[in-house]
Design brief:
Elements: E1 2-6, H1 9-26, E2 31-34, H2 41-52, E3 62-65, E4 67-69, H3 80-87, E5 99-100, H4 108-120, E6 127-130, E7 152-155, H5 158-164, E8 177-180, H6 183-187, E9 192-196, H7 201-209, E10 227-232
Parallel strand pairs: 1-10, 2-3, 2-6, 3-5, 6-9, 9-10
Antiparallel strand pairs: 4-8, 7-8
Helix pairs in contact: 1-2
The structure holds 2-phosphoglycolic acid.
2-phosphoglycolic acid (PGA) binds next to loops.
Length: about 230
């Protein structure tokens, strides 16, 4: 595992955006696993700038997102499909047909199977971007008794609902379920980039140096052959 500590969050985001740019320039049909949340927004802004400046071409790139809330449609402004469209896809030259965010509506089990198929289609992701929750979750894999292997519907923990309520009018509006790649699904990626702001330092430290346990889901990254953790010192 490689750990990069930058001097600022802006530098963290620049480092990651550059890694993605270099990957896509080397492999124009790269498959990217993408994440939502506050953490990646400045990274996506930098990718948009790079794309507009002609430094990177997304026209052949495929993307698959980690997770989606259950019970809200992709047109809802808090859905992860809406997030990806408005924070990235609508502003770069990607073909939207090549972007996949699970549906959170209808048959959740069928939607989970569809996401698992998309993860397998065309082979493993060249790169998976990950944030981390204050409870150590990656995707929506909440602390639990065993590492979930495959994509699955999940009940969100109270701490995740509270953390995400900042984006909703009322805490009662936060979906209580989601569909997420499992830990086994995430570990299939060839390379994993975990990004964390200074507010996540404590949980990152626990995940990287503590025991590997499903009670700290991100700790499983210690077992992957190509993980880079990028965090900032302030
Ligand atoms: P955040 O979420 O980027 O909004 O802090 C990260 C996560 O919960 O995985």
């Amino acid at each position: 595992m490689k750990v990069i500590v930058t001097n600022s969050y802006d530098e963290t985001c620049a480092v990651i955006a550059n890694m993605i740019k270099e990957l896509v320039n080397a492999k124009p049909d790269a498959k990217l696993g993408l994440a939502t949340g506050g953490t990646p927004v400045p990274i996506y802004k930098k990718l948009i700038e790079m794309n507009k400046a002609g430094e990177v071409d997304f026209s052949r790139v495929h993307t698959v997102n980690l997770d989606e809330y259950c019970g809200i449609p992709g047109t809802h402004d808090q859905s992860y499909r809406y997030f990806m469209d408005t924070n990235l896809f609508d502003h770069i030259n990607i073909d939207k047909k090549n972007t996949f965010v699970a549906s959170g509506m209808g048959d959740f089990e069928a939607n989970a199977r569809e996401l698992e198929e998309k993860v397998r289609e065309g082979g493993a992701a060249d790169l998976q971007l990950l944030g981390i929750g204050h409870n150590g979750h990656i995707g929506f894999n909440e602390p639990c008794e065993s590492f979930p292997a495959a994509v699955h519907p999940v009940e969100l923990t109270e701490s995740t609902i509270q953390a995400n309520s900042r984006l909703f009018d009322r805490v009662e509006d936060v979906p209580t379920r989601a569909i997420t790649m499992g830990i086994g699904t995430i570990l299939k990626a060839r390379r994993i980039l975990l990004i964390a702001g200074a507010d996540k330092r404590e949980i990152v430290e626990k995940a990287l140096t503590g025991p590997v346990t499903p009670w700290v889901p991100a700790s499983v990254l210690q077992l992957h052959r190509d993980v880079t953790v990028i965090t900032c010192g302030e």
